Amino acid sequence: MAPRANWKGFLRLSLVTCPVALYPATSESEKVSFNQLNRKTGHRIKYAKVDADTGEEVANEDIVKGYKVDTDTFIEVTKEELENVALESTRTIEIDEFVDRSEIDPRYLIRPYYLVPDGKVGHDAFAVVRETIREMNKVAIGRVVLTNREHIIALEPMDKGLMGTLLRYPYEVRSAEEYFDDIQDVKVTKDMLDLAKHIVNQKAGHFEPDKFEDQYETALIDLINQKRAGKPITAKARPRGENVVDLMDALRKSIGREAATAAEAPKKSTKKPRKVAAGQKEMLMPIAGKKPAKEAAAKKLTARPQRKSA
To answer: Rounded distance, CA 162 to CA 142, Å?
Structure first.
């Protein structure tokens, strides 16, 4: 099932306008999540919205937004008043300017979205905007309103669509000076730099996200599988950091270790793990009522969890 659009409206470049939809490009729904439980009863914890003074529960329709002026004073702002704050970008992404991608500081990047034509109308205008940005090798900067807030969005071509990345405002980005000022000025010798470069060359590769494994997520699934199977849980030894006494010696040892690792790499199995259906995590946790209790209890939970295939 395709995800719902976070926003629908229009993309406009001067007099060229087309209907578009904005979809989240990332998702964390596949990650293991936990509920909070009462340790004594095993029941889920339920949160209620209550009046801070009376302690009485408050219905959603009676809850409004308020800006805190001081300890006991709030300025109440209604939903209607917020909607009356007129912003042209509420329904339209207006392209204000075009910049080079290299000019966008990575600290300003928030999250990516996919921008696509909404419906059959507007594909031609969308293609004109997309291909113009592609041919000019630029990033389009516009504004969009999400959850009542106006955001800066950077648009760049991606295949047949556009990728939109929300950007932070300057007041949201902290200055690096207050963190970096205390770092000592150290002169790195040519010998040390050469050894470090050698290590980099040994570990050089290409950015291939399919090779990445969320080891913590895998460990969580293993933990749940083991507890479900009634197996004892043993704590793993944590690695300890070592003090570097001789930096040159540490660099030389690192080169030797990387060389040994590279030599052992071809010996590893090249067999690809079996694919798991999209969105599926192999928790190996039987659903109540689907199988007889004896059959469910007899089933061995030995397979390791497989991650979602790209």
So the answer is: 13
Q: Structure pTM?
A: 0.71
Which residues make Cβ contacts (< 8 Å) with residue 107, sequence separation at least 6?
Answer: 168, 173
d(CA 89, CA 241): 51
Residue-by-residue pLDDT tens, the chain, 310 positions = 567 899 999 999 988 899 999 999 998 888 999 999 999 999 999 999 999 899 999 999 999 999 999 888 999 988 888 777 756 667 899 899 999 999 999 999 999 999 999 988 889 999 999 999 999 999 999 999 887 788 999 999 999 999 999 999 999 999 999 899 999 998 888 888 888 888 888 888 898 888 888 888 888 888 888 889 888 888 877 766 666 557 778 777 777 777 777 777 655 544 444 444 444 455 554 434 344 444 444 443 444 444 444 4
Residues 6+ apart with CB under 8 A from 143: 89, 93, 94, 96, 150, 151, 152, 153
